[in-house]
Structures are given as C-alpha cells and as structure tokens.
Write a structure and sequence with these properties.
This protein has 116 residues and is α+β, with helices and mostly antiparallel strands. The protein has 2 helices and 4 strands. A 4-stranded mixed β-sheet has the order 1-2-4-3, covered by helices on one side.
Amino acid sequence: MVAGYPCCSISGQNNQQKSFTDKESSTGSGFHATKKYVSNNKSLEWILLENVQGMFYKRSKFGNECPMDVQTAWMKKQGFECAFSLLINSSEYGLPQSRARAYVLYIRVGSMKHFT
C-alpha cells in the first residue's frame, strides 16, 4: 500500500494546528481512514506513507504528541515494524516543490523474508 493523507493539522504553514488524532481535522480523519483500511486488509505486507516533516516534531501544544510516534505505535499493534523513516526534499527528484517530505515504510512482521 502506498498512501498519504492531508497534512493541514501538522503543517508548519498552519497557524491553527490540531491534534494528530483529532478525527474532526483533515489530518486526523485521514489517519483514521488509513487505520480503518489497514485493519480491514490483513493481507497487506508493507505500507509506504508520505506526509510533511511535521510528522517528526513533538508538539507541546498537544501534550508533546509526535505524529510519527502515534502512527508507529498503532502500526506496531497491527503487526508492522518501521523499516525506515526519512525526510526527502522532493525538489531533488524533479518535483516542483522544495519542502521536505516524510516517507515511512512499515513491513508486517513475518513478511520481512520477502524483502531480503
């Protein structure tokens, strides 16, 4: 699975950020929709997610919530391990934007043998 969900609630460009887990926000609803899809598709072996670099920031306004930590903890409960997480400046790959993007690959435990 390759996916991304709205970044509005965690974007540094937004002065009215919301909690990553807030189902009423565009980011929170996107995260919850991703969770629902993953929960309903037990055959998934890997998941590549993309979002803004704000995924890696602890946000004191929301009790030091770090979206990456929240997402990874949930994925771990579903049987996935984080294989890698990194920031890539998309402009270095020909895309017309210069903001860093967060990419995270989760692989289902037991499926790792398929990737070696």
